[in-house]
Request: fold
Amino acid sequence: MNELPHMRKLYTRSVLSEETAGSDPLELFRLWFSEAKEEGELEPNAMSLATVNKAGQPSIRIVLLKGLIRDEFQFFTNYDSDKGKDITENHHVALNFFWPKLERQIRIEGQAARISKEESETYFAVRPRESQIGALASNQSSVVPSREFLEEKFASLSKEWEGIKIPKPENWGGYSVFPTKIEFWQGRVGRLHDRISFERIESSWKRSRLSP
Ligand SMILES: Cc1cc2nc3c(=O)[nH]c(=O)nc-3n(C[C@H](O)[C@H](O)[C@H](O)COP(=O)(O)O)c2cc1C
Reply:
């Protein structure tokens, strides 16, 4: 680990001006996301999701962005998981996208809410069958006795549901995050990075440039 103090990357790829940023952060998000996809970023829709429980303990993990619907960021999970419990206790969350090839980061703060059961069912129905069985088999975030326990449960559920349409488990579904703050970061030379932040003020966005 001795090399850690000397590990650094020079960011020279691009710039973020006020002109490019525009006045609508959702539009800029869509543009940057399409560029991340075109660039071949590995899993461009993978985002860190930070939650905080009622004791004030933060927790963070990756989830996949599965929709940007009505300008809200959607992901799917188990409502009884640790993240689900955190959100029940405290609906304030944060998201983070890091696209290293483009030398970009996007930070989002907002409030999470469950999407409708119907919307969750629609997405559950198009998931690969293996993922549907996985959702049935996993009480996400609970302790299991062994790997074998999970595999046996998966095998027995596969047999039980063979040839039958699998319904969405009650405790599985989507959340949408209503963004109140979105910050775009573009790496620049000399650590003078571009940071442009948008804060929601009622129905419009206030744009500011932040010191790197
Ligand atoms: C690339 C990647 C994508 C993931 N996507 C999801 C997802 O969409 N939903 C989900 O519940 N967990 C997803 N996970 C697993 C979570 O990171 C986490 O392990 C799990 O949701 C349990 O988190 P919790 O105990 O904090 O609730 C993903 C993990 C990785 C590395």
Summary: The pocket of flavin mononucleotide is lined by residues 43, 46, 59, 61-64, 75-77, 81-83, 140-141 (CB under 6 Å). The mean pLDDT is 96. The two ends are 27 Å apart (CA to CA). The chain has one domain: 4-121+176-209.
